Structures are given as C-alpha cells and as structure tokens.
Amino acid sequence: MAIKIIAAMDSNCNIGKDGKLPWQGKPEYRWDMVHFKETTRNKNVVMGYNTFLSLNSKALPNRVNYVVSKKHANLINDLNVNKIFKSVEDLIYWYQTGYQWLKITNNEDLYIIGGAEIYKEFLQAGLVDEIIISIFDEKFDANISFPKEYLYKTHGYRIDESKTKVYGNGKIYIFIRMTEKEVGIEHTYHDLSDIMKWNKNEINNK
Ligand SMILES: NC(=O)c1ccc[n+]([C@@H]2O[C@H](COP(=O)([O-])OP(=O)(O)OC[C@H]3O[C@@H](n4cnc5c(N)ncnc54)[C@H](OP(=O)(O)O)[C@@H]3O)[C@@H](O)[C@H]2O)c1
Predict the structure, then answer these.
(1) H or E stretch including 117?
(2) What does the pLDDT look like over 134-187, one tens digit per residue?
(3) Domains identified in the chain, total number
(4) Ligand 1, from 69, 94, 124, 138: best to mutate by most atoms within 8 Å of Cβ?
(5) What confidence tens digit (pLDDT) does each residue in 13-29 have?
(6) Does 142 sit in the ligand 1 pocket, CB within 6 Å?
(7) Whose CA is nearest to atom 3 of ligand 1?
(8) CATH number of the CATH domain containing 124
(9) In terms of DSSP bridges, do strands 157-167 and 171-180 run parallel, antiparallel, or are they unpaired?
(10) Does the beta carbon of 15 lie inside 6 Å of ligand 1?
C-alpha cells in the first residue's frame, strides 16, 4: 500500500496549459498516455477538481476515481466518480482506516494523477512514497508547472529507474521512477532539469 505520483512534464517542468495538457491532441505524445493508462489501469486514482474538469468531467474508465474538491464535496451523484473528498486529510483518513464502503481495488496503492495543486498537497505533507515522471525534451507554451520545489522539502527521493526513448529529431523522452529515500541514507539531490541534461549527455556519449 503506497501513495504514488504520476506526472508528465516538459523540460521546464510544465504540466498544464489553460486547463489542458500543453501537448493535448498532438498524436506524437500519445504513447505517454498509453504509459499512463497501463500504469494506472484497475488502480485507485486521485485527482484535483481542475484535473477532473480537464477530463471533460468524466471518471477515467477501469479505475477507481477519487476527486478532491472543497467546493464540490457534496456532488458525488452528479459527478459520477467513486468519491469526492473535501480535503486531502479526509482522503488519507478514509484510506488509512480502510472503510468498507470506500472501494479500494485489489492493489491498494493510490495514484495521485494531478494537477499541480494536488501534487503539491501530497508532497508538502510528506505522503508520497513513489514518483513516476515522464519528461519531454521540449518546451511547451504552458501556465501550470509541477511543484518541483516541494520534491525534496520534507523527504528525499532517490532515482531507482531511469529510461530514455529517442523520438523526433533526436529529442528524448525520459521516464524516471523515484522512491522515498531510506531514513539515514545521505540525501542525493537531483534537480529535474539536471536529470534531463544528464540523460542527454549519456546518450550523446554513447
Ligand atoms: N501533465 C500532467 O501529468 C498533468 C496531470 C494532471 C493534470 N494536469 C494539468 O494540470 C492542470 C490542473 O492543475 P491545477 O493545479 O490547476 O488543479 P488540480 O490540482 O487538478 O485541482 C485543483 C482543485 O482541487 C481542489 N483542491 C486542491 N487542493 C485541495 C485541498 N487540499 N482540499 C480540497 N480541495 C482541494 C480545489 O477544488 P475546488 O476549487 O473545487 O475546491 C482546487 O481548485 C490542467 O491543465 C491539467 O491538464 C497535467
């Protein structure tokens, strides 16, 4: 039972533009959506209300959908998701106490699927065990960024897995998986933009 963030961003850590993904509708980025779907299929997903709106106010199929919203906490039947929580604390409480009516899938992990506000809330509270990030080697027009400044504020994360895929004109897509560092282990700082530079150098030196 773990809490995991999953996010995709450009090389400036941007994740959103006017309530949508900055790369929305562009077919060359569809494979990241495939990765997202495969990772979260049949899992519990948690999203902020704006992200719910960005999905055209529809629950993601084949997942247990939880929405966090203070203003819309009483609209469960209208929103047609599994449950709406009025706060992150409420969600964590119900999750930890395992109330029967809270439909938890066989795999009890919670996938925090965004957006920026919700990522920040979970990181700030030190609740995140694992972070799965895709980074595109491009800069998109955007106005919402991943709150990377909270990545190392409470807990450290170490990189367990880093894979690259070359696409387009030598552009690379990086996929990294970080887990919370073990207590007592020296904190290794990895700025997300450094990860991009490091992976690029590795590829160029091959
Ligand atoms: N690239 C990616 O991986 C990715 C993933 C997800 C989303 N996105 C993008 O990110 C953008 C949306 O992000 P966002 O930061 O604007 O919004 P968000 O995090 O999706 O939702 C924010 C809303 O969630 C509710 N909320 C947040 N914290 C809360 C708390 N502690 N207690 C109760 N309610 C809380 C509030 O809703 P109420 O106002 O209703 O109370 C708040 O207005 C979109 O552009 C979307 O496409 C990108």
Answers:
(1) helix 116-124
(2) 988 889 999 999 998 887 666 677 778 888 887 776 777 888 888 876 655 444
(3) 1
(4) 69
(5) 999 999 999 999 888 88
(6) no
(7) 7
(8) 3.40.430.10
(9) antiparallel
(10) yes
